[in-house]
LAO/AO transport system kinase (Palleronia aestuarii), 642 residues
Amino acid sequence: MADYIPSMDLIEPASKGETWAVARLISRAEANMSEVREAIGEIYRRAGNAHVIGLTGVPGSGKSTMVAKLVHKLRAAGRRVAVVAIDPSSPYSGGSILGDRIRMSDLALDRDVFIRSMATHGSVGGMAHAALDVVDILDIAGFDKIIIETVGVGQDEVEIANASHTTVVVSAPGLGDEVQAIKAGILEIADIHVVSKCDRSDSNKTMTDLKSMLRDGIGHGVQPNWRAPVIGSSSFQEEGFDELVAAFDKHLESLEGEPGRARREQISSFRLRKAAEALMLERFEAQSDFDGAATDVAARTVDPYSAAETLVRNFSSEASS
Amino acid sequence: MADYIPSMDLIEPASKGETWAVARLISRAEANMSEVREAIGEIYRRAGNAHVIGLTGVPGSGKSTMVAKLVHKLRAAGRRVAVVAIDPSSPYSGGSILGDRIRMSDLALDRDVFIRSMATHGSVGGMAHAALDVVDILDIAGFDKIIIETVGVGQDEVEIANASHTTVVVSAPGLGDEVQAIKAGILEIADIHVVSKCDRSDSNKTMTDLKSMLRDGIGHGVQPNWRAPVIGSSSFQEEGFDELVAAFDKHLESLEGEPGRARREQISSFRLRKAAEALMLERFEAQSDFDGAATDVAARTVDPYSAAETLVRNFSSEASS
């Protein structure tokens, strides 16, 4: 590999917005190569200028189509826009949702748009680091709006969307009971509520339900100086997107001073915790005889909790030697 | 609390199938009370007789209705049946799906049926222990078929369903692209495929798609001496359930000897790993200054990975003192 450029040397061209350098750093961050880690640290310390928008919604809420429309709208307003989409995919064979991404392909030649789809391969926890590292890379590359799109199902997916400055939760009319129940779990992290498919007649009910929930004091997010708006949109009729983009900016303004500091601290705390937990468990598992212990647990001569105690105790005394 | 009975003393009545004792142990296991842990260990060592069936499917696949029908069918065949349903619910305000459970309420007075709905409250990881502890309690209480029902979205939910002797994956016709992609992630853990809603005309396509996938060698699960069948069912027309119950028994037979040993080892390994990881992280977080480190990370003077390194290093040297 004669043309292999060390990751540290990619930081400067990436900072000038050179797509080839950005793409290489992202691929290396996504693969979590050890060579890239020093660069990721340096990039983290330089980043922090972009407006990061987390967008989440249950399956079938139409959020991917919405993101494609948003990208067009933000580009038309002269913004440099990046999208990091976390795709649910097989934990065994891979395979991310290409259809939704392809709808954005008319943007493929626009240098001020960057779209990256990341397949989770069943390990969303690990994905959280990589996705937020990718956001930092896009941040130093000068993208001013970065959208993280996740399916709002599963704790990790919701946490990733919430590790942003502005969290948008997409609701849609006409989903089943079970989907609605899952949705209930994400409404409370919203800074902005969007109801998609407002061309449908049953969308009024969805809007009304959301608004009445907000009147009851639920779903306003956690920021004291902000009340989450409910915005209706139709990707089909291209409605609601100006209002949504305006809400992004309004929410960003609301983060000036203390609210923004609190938000950044919350995101940092999440990233630190994820990184520390992963590192701790990596060390623990490398130094412990999990397989031997599992055999005893399988024979039911010892229960998993006692076996776990023993492993943790052995690890701690190992660390002291 | 004059009538408080220590958990260790509940084991005997629970083993005789006394519902009040079973219910108390389950509530304590679910709350993860420290008093119950010794009893859980003892219960684990006594358990291992029931046939544990994991049943999972994407939202909208009709699996809860299917479980209700299955319970009736298994009861009619003279089996003692228990259901542990892991409900997706708000990570913030709680609120599990009651509707589906209520459909089973006609069984509420049958002593040989036990149905427990567990809300995840956003922490599915922690739920895995509790759910499998509950399965052990039901096991020593003499239930011979125990169904664990989860939404097949998110790594933890899928792992819980897979921590069973027989994993059933429910597919349904007419779900959207995004749901189908999520579904793709769970097909490969199936020992038995069920297509629900076979009264619908578009269910033929779902059956054909699944069968052609199996012909391509995908979706057969991991057990060398077993080929996953595809069973059509209709809860509405009460079709396919005899076949499904027969498939449960046939799969159980296939687990005799080495395949069953391998399966038990895999489940034990999963439970041990979850327990050990939780315990390790609990110790780590109790002894580390996460908040202080997060402040530096928020100020971007240090990146999360370097800060994590420091925390892990400090913990290890702490353990040695």
In short: Chain B has two domains: 47-257, 287-319.
